[in-house]
Amino acid sequence: MTKRSESTQNDGKVTASGHKVSKNESHSDPGGKMQDQDDRKVGLGKKVTMLRGISIIVGTIIGAGIFISPKGILKHSGSVGMSLIVWIACGVLSLFGALCYAELGTCIKKSGGHYTYILEAFGPQMAFIRLWADLIAIRPAAMAVISLAFGQYILEPLFMPCAIPPMAVKLATAIGITSVVYLNSMSVTWTARIQILLTFSKLLAISIIIVPGMYQLFKGETKNFENAFELSNVKLSGMPLAFYSGMYAYAGWFYLNFLTEEVDNPERTIPLAIGISMAIVTSCYVLTNVAYYTVMSADELLASEAVAVTFAEKLMGKFSIVVPVFVALSCFGSMNGGLFALSRMFFVASREGQLPEVLSMIHVRRHTPLAAVLILYPMTTLQVFVGDIYSLLNFMSFLRWLFIGVVVLGLIYLRYTKPDLPRPFKVPLFIPVVFCLTCFFMVFLSLYSDPVNTGIGFAISLTGIPAYYIFIYFSHRPKWLQRALDSFNRTLQIILVVVPAEQ
């Protein structure tokens, strides 16, 4: 398969899309230099430091769930004690997965995350199916859901105690999505700085819950922990669903791997950032739940529509009005971190020749992958206003674990097919084996508990196979389609002021 970026840099021609772009024309400035106004190469620099890496992972994992409805685990585990054990166990299992990705990130030094690792291990067709499912359904729906949570909670203090009009929520959501897209389009540095700020704000929000909760615990408020491991309500049949809820709450540890090429000293930064982030998130999740139980019984927690608000009302009175603001900021951090990382997957897929060539181009002054950032914007906004988002998420929830399982299986496969591949960070073999089995168990659980939605999701992803052969595999496209692609790339390149990245 032709790699567009390489062909562009070698001779100034875009061979995959057919039209020619002169390097001198597309990169020149009045002084005749093939660089931008700052006399730097047009490309994505190594701007992700250790602190920024941690903020991307922590800021993306911790969304609205821990503040609003951390009750899926309690509901299915049956007791307070078992729910805390499940939170810890899911944190450890997620750490196993994160360590596997740390090994992949240090031996395959390319951005793109899941997509790149599947491409390296199993080839372009499997990678395209993953990309296709992400592009047409998973990512727009997931972004729309967290954005709607932002719209809901940013408006809540203004409308209390009345209900918020649905259209107002959607308009606030659209403004939130637009601001995140604008930020990511304008500056990589400022996107990362604001991500750090948002991560500290959500850690502050969690500390506002944990500190009073620990104070209550040390005062002796332990009545809700009596008989914490009472087995009468524990059902073994519910434990897999409890683990499913827990693993979903920890999802997001893989986002730094989407940015590998932009990470400063990736051999050291990626494993350390992932390890520190998982320790922070697991500690926050467990201690937050302990804090909730100091003022709420299990029944009260299950009955609450917004657990953090109920907690704050019981301990802080009117101060609880700030909780929705913190939840909204937490959602905004997840939106920002998610878009920052995902745009790099589309950027790399375009560079590999599997998406339109303009998506692998960089803005000449801003040094951001502008087209790759914008690709999710229209689909996400459309789903906010007209889509049945939650049905899509039901269809696609199992695909996340299927493909993560395939990636970790690829790690084991590469150990045997490429034993000489440099591995600065290497995990013991039992870790990928345990995590791989966990992922495939969760896929099986999805098939067992909701076969219809899972089947529909699987069918949607399989439409990637004909799409691969139509758009990628067959090199002799109809002339009208080739002309349309040429015109599309050329027009967008001019409008967005983007050029191929320089090496």
Short description:
The chain has 503 residues and is mostly helical. The protein contains 22 helices and 2 strands.
What does this structure look like?
It contains 22 helices and two strands. With 503 residues, the chain is an all-alpha fold. The chain is globular and about 75 Å long. The chain starts with a helix and ends with a strand.
Highlighted features:
single chain, 2 strands, 503 residues, 70% helix, disordered N terminus, mainly alpha
Give the overall silhouette.
Answer: globular
Radius of gyration: 23 Å
Q: Point out poorly predicted stretches.
A: 1-38
Strand order of the largest sheet: 1-2
Class computed from helices, strands and strand pairing: mainly alpha
**Oligomeric state of the chains present here:** single chain
How many strands appear in the DSSP assignment?
Answer: 2
Q: Give the helices and strands as they follow along the chain.
A: HHHHHHHHHHHHHHHEHHHHHHHE
